[in-house]
Amino acid sequence: MRKLFWITLLLCSVNTVFAAELRTLKWEEMVPADAPPLPAPAPLHNLNQLADILAEESGPAAEQQHPNAPIVPELDGLKVKLPGYIVPLTIDDNSRITEFLLVPYFGACIHVPPPPSNQIVYVTSEGGVALGDMWQPYWIEGTLSVESFSSDMGDTGYRAEAEQIYPYVFDSPAIKKNR
């Protein structure tokens, strides 16, 4: 009986350890505390003109604000949950985005200068995201690596293998109160 108690206690503690590993990360935590301040994000497009902007022929890519921005080495190997918007890099035969850049604000890397490299995460995912669903914000959960990646859309300071991707839902106390 005593052996069963210890096994149960061990299993419960292992489950708690794994649950505690996932850290909700904020974009500003991906910038070292002693780094110079980040520039303000580029202004967003007038969303009424978004279709016209996206339909334009692609001109030369906008120059990235800080392609070698400092990173936080302590984030390497952490299991994280991070919100952001998807900038597609690879679309599979099923019209799913399996490689993308995760960025902190809508419109980053599309006709505006990409944010600093410490504000872009290169993400890979087996399941991916449906191409038609890329306009909304998402949460990604997975292991973060302090590792650079370079693409035509911008350089990154971090990589992540997404184990889960799901829509971001804003749920504030004020909204709950008014329901």
Features:
single chain; 179 residues; alpha/beta; OB fold (Dihydrolipoamide Acetyltransferase, E2P)
Biggest beta sheet summary = 5 strands, mixed, barrel
In CATH terms, what is the architecture of the domain at 22-32 and 64-169? Answer: Beta Barrel
Q: Per the principal axes of the C-alpha atoms, what is the gross shape?
A: globular
- Which parts are unreliable, with pLDDT below 50 for 5 consecutive residues or more? 4-10, 12-20
If strands are numbered along the chain, what order do they take across the biggest sheet?
A: 2-3-4-6-5
The CATH class designation of the domain at 22-32 and 64-169 is Mainly Beta
Rg (C-alpha, Å): 19 Å
Structural classification: alpha/beta
Order of helices and strands: HEHEEEEEH
